[in-house]
Design goal:
Layout (H helix, E strand, L loop, with lengths): L1 H67 L2 H27 L3 H28 L9 H11 L3 H29 L3 H45 L1
Helix pairs in contact: 2-3, 2-4, 2-5, 3-6, 5-6
Length: 229
């Protein structure tokens, strides 16, 4: 009798104790999960800050590299990039519109040689953190538009006249940079490219003479035709 009298309360106490323990356990797990989530967020935030820091260091490094290149060297690189693009674009036009085979061949030579030089200059600028122009300047675009409306001997004379004038300036600029550049790598680029430009000038002068003679021959032929008629 006494044993049965106390068994029910004992069972109730046991159930209550179990429920309390379960509640404590659940609350503990909730706190642990929340702590893990906060820890994960903290790690993600830290990684993000590290990434931003590395990006900032990279940009800062590029700006620092660009700052080490003198203004005169940067100006030369900018001008060389513009000139190289111009030679390639106008050379492509010459291969399509020139009448003289010599002028066509000269145009193709411009495309080949200046494309290689432009690639070297682009790589150099990248290592120095210097941004180069990617479009033709207004003066070159105007010349391109003018030549694109010409053909035959007229095109040959105008194109070669421009090439002789342009390469005289290029040779002068590269010769000056090869001796006065402050940056050793820029100086090396100017020195190694100069001989090619000097050869281009000689070829341009020869092709210009051919274009002039071509015009004279055409004029003489017209005069003979008129006399005969």
């Amino acid at each position: 009798m006494s044993s049965h009298r106390f068994s029910a309360p004992a069972r109730i106490v046991g159930v209550v104790s179990f429920c309390f323990a379960a509640a404590v356990c659940a609350q503990t797990q909730t706190h642990e999960a929340a702590g893990a989530a906060k820890s994960s967020q903290a790690m993600t935030s830290s990684q993000s800050n590290m990434s931003k820091g590395q990006s900032g260091m990279s940009n800062g490094s590029m700006n620092s590299q660009a700052a080490t290149v003198s203004s005169s060297d940067r100006k030369f690189m900018d001008k060389a990039a513009q000139g190289g693009m111009a030679e390639v674009k106008l050379g492509e036009l010459a291969t399509q519109k020139a009448q003289s085979d010599q002028v066509k061949q000269f145009g193709q030579r411009m495309v080949d040689d200046h494309s290689k030089a432009d690639q070297k200059l682009s790589q150099l600028a990248s290592t120095k953190g210097v941004a180069l122009p990617t479009t033709l300047d207004k003066s070159t675009q105007k010349e391109y538009d003018k030549l694109s409306k010409m053909s035959g001997p007229e095109f040959d004379r105008e194109y070669m006249k421009h090439m002789v004038s342009d390469h005289k300036k290029d040779v002068s600029d590269f010769k000056s940079e090869a001796s006065k550049a402050k940056d050793a790598d820029v100086k090396q680029f100017a020195s190694s490219t100069l001989p090619t430009l000097q050869e281009h000038l000689q070829l341009a002068q020869a092709a210009q003479q051919t274009a002039k003679n071509e015009g004279k021959t055409q004029t003489s032929s017209r005069a003979t035709t008129k006399t005969g008629s």
